[in-house]
Amino acid sequence: MSCCSNGVYGARLGIYPMQDQFATLILDAVRKSDRRNLAVFTDDMGTGVQGSGRRVFDYVAQVISHAFSGGGHTVAQVLFSYGCDGDVPEKIPRDTDEEIPFDWEDAGDIHCSCTWSYYPLGSHAHLEHIENAVSRVTERENLSITRTHYATRIDGTLKEMFSALEEAFERSVRGGIHTVFHLTLSKGSPSKPHTQIHL
């Protein structure tokens, strides 16, 4: 079933603070995050990162938690990818042989909303993979799951959300699938949650 000849883990991240001084808030969030054992590249369209699966997820979680720690409405867009045959691996520095766990102490209680789309590319059983992944995330007691068009909505703390999504991503990768997750996260929106806006 394996289709992945290129075992590259990576992500592309954009942060969008809905407030003044947005450039400072974005760059501070990127600078504060631990980039050891990662290739990190930032340009005018966002930040890309490559490394091991755990380090990539931890780095993205750190950047988002730093950005979301401020007041106001902030949005993040993330694309995680593993196993793209056309991806080009960057040279990843080996800065340390230590484990580099992310300390959620200051960020774990940040509450946000997320829409999650899962693309198990190259698999004919893609709907089965999607349903299984969503079912497992739904089992998390501390997350609220809502089905919506083209995505699954998740509400909860950033820590619980990333724990569930990283587990789902790794399960897909272990199945030998070219895996893509697309996330849109929102913290502090002035809109009423779960309510359609009629214009």
What features would you highlight for this structure?
globular; eight-stranded antiparallel sheet; alpha+beta; 199 residues; 8 strands
**What oligomeric state do the depicted chains represent?**
single chain
Radius of gyration: 17 Å
Shape: globular
Main sheet properties: 8 strands, antiparallel
Distance between the termini: 47 Å
- The beta-strand count equals 8
Strand order of the largest sheet: 2-3-1-4-8-5-7-6
How many helices does DSSP assign?
4
Structure classification: alpha+beta
β-strand percent reads: 25-35%
The residue-averaged pLDDT reads 90
Low-confidence stretches: none
Helical coverage, percent range: 25-40%
> Strand-and-helix sequence, N→C?
EHEEHEEHEEHE
Describe the structure.
With about 200 residues, the chain is an alpha+beta fold. Helices cover about 30% and strands about 30% of the residues. The chain is built from four helices and eight strands. An eight-stranded antiparallel β-sheet has the order 2-3-1-4-8-5-7-6. A hairpin with a 2-residue loop joins β2 and β3 (about 45-50). α1 (about 20-30) packs antiparallel against α2. The model has no long low-confidence stretch (mean pLDDT about 90).
How would you summarize the topology of this molecule?
Elements: E1 9-17, H1 22-32, E2 39-43, E3 46-51, H2 53-68, E4 74-82, E5 111-121, H3 126-138, E6 144-148, E7 151-157, H4 158-174, E8 178-187
Antiparallel strand pairs: 1-3, 1-4, 2-3, 4-8, 5-7, 5-8, 6-7
Nutshell version of this structure?
With about 200 residues, the protein is of the alpha+beta class.
